[in-house]
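Complex 316.
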Amino acid sequence: MRHLLSTQGLSRDDATALLDDAERFEQALTGREVRKLPTLRGRTVMTVFYENSTRTRVSFEVAGKWMSADVINVSASSSSAGKGESLRDTAKTLHAAGADALIVRHPASGAPAQIADWTTTPDGDGPAVINAGDGTHEHPTQALLDALTLRQRLGSLEGRRIAIVGDIIHSRVARSNAHLLSTLGAEVVLVAPPTLLPVGVDQWPVSVSGSLDAELPAVDAVMMLRVQAERMNGGFFPSAREYSVRFGLNDRRLGLLHDDAVVLHPGPMLRGMEIGYSVADSPKATVLEQVRNGVHVRMAVLFRLLVGSDSAGAHL
Ligand code: CP
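Predicted structure with phosphoric acid mono(formamide)ester bound:
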């Protein structure tokens, strides 16, 4: 594996190996006074974010630092992108400055793949590129951390029914999860109004439903999505109030889930909109487990791309 750009190219074996390695990194660090492994000493990892982020940027930085990499954060607002430098020139500059890995978030779908292309030399060398969220396309490390959280809570993904609810059309998290969870053996149902479903969703490995109330009793997990008003150009249909009434996970709806079912949200959450205030803090909610798993999953991805295809176990 040279890059991680989407979950659509990940085999079941590759995905399972990444989740297993994430758990190995977690175990290797548990109980340590000093959370530092020598695994990536001498490697330089750069986060390059053209959109805001809390969880993804911070957890990649923590992951790199816990593995002793030199981690450099580049943001569009403080880089020469603000002076008009092109994405291509910025990417080639960061490669020339010594990046072994570029972790890229960008509002344009396909930007990380384009960067991987621009920075690959004729010999096939160049930095590993990790997609940290590109437009409405994909967010593969989010899907991996969600899959790890589900595996830990449910035991296995095989045959589990998982609902992904809400603003599917703007959600890179939904697309990455639909593909990865189905690769791992889950049945995925998208629950959304027709206006928030993307063209071509019939090609995804999912079923589609318009009724959250009808789906909740039968699912093992429900993944609520943030409503991405910033990608709606001021328009919002159904209205925010109607959306919340029909697709919000409130206390009544939480009661429709079976006892062992869990609630995921990738964050940031709009409490009171897609998820109720108390639902987000209920024992069924996995929001902070997802964040913790995000650090270990990102360690596993950095290990796989920068060290190789062995299991991390041999290096711990
Ligand atoms: N889940 C997620 O991508 O969160 P951030 O935007 O805070 O990174």
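The longest strand covers residues 128-134.
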